[in-house]
Design brief:
By secondary structure, the protein is mainly α. The chain contains 6 helices and no strands.
Length: about 140
């Protein structure tokens, strides 16, 4: 069976991407392992994970925008989506700084797409939140 090193940076990117869509994933564990193994420079690992995770979140935003064309927000029965719509309505793109949170983060991105918030604002807020999270994870495993 191949090890994580076999998949390297593309594996980290893919893990981060999948982890940020509606599918479950464990990109933090992959990043922590690669950092601990000194697979590549820590900054490179953080950038790859952040890029993959941000693009995955933007995919979820796109799904929200696509879904909004077919269904009004009142038809969303998922409690996480309803809560996220309220958070996004109240806090705007700033709520996306927390898009890295499990379960709630995906719903925040979905709601941002649903409400058609500024694309550039969404990209920046999502990226900053995810960059801070991956930086914390990476440096926690360098000690």
């Amino acid at each position: 069976m191949p090890s994580l090193e076999t998949f390297g940076l593309p594996g980290l990117f893919l893990s981060a991407f999948i982890s940020s869509t509606v599918a479950p994933g464990g990109s933090e564990a992959v990043l922590a392992y690669l950092v601990n193994q000194q697979f590549a420079p820590i900054l490179e690992l953080i950038v790859i994970a952040t890029l993959g995770n941000t693009l995955g979140a933007l995919t979820t935003c796109w799904l929200g925008a696509w879904t909004a064309q077919k269904y009004p927000s009142k038809q969303l029965d998922n409690k996480y989506h309803q809560r996220s719509l309220r958070w996004i309505t109240r806090w705007g793109i700033w709520a996306l700084l927390f898009s890295w949170l499990p379960v709630v983060g995906d719903a925040l991105c979905f709601a941002a797409g649903w409400l058609k918030l500024s694309r550039i604002g969404c990209v920046l807020a999502i990226m900053v939140g995810k960059l801070l999270r991956y930086t914390a994870v990476a440096y926690a495993f360098t000690l």
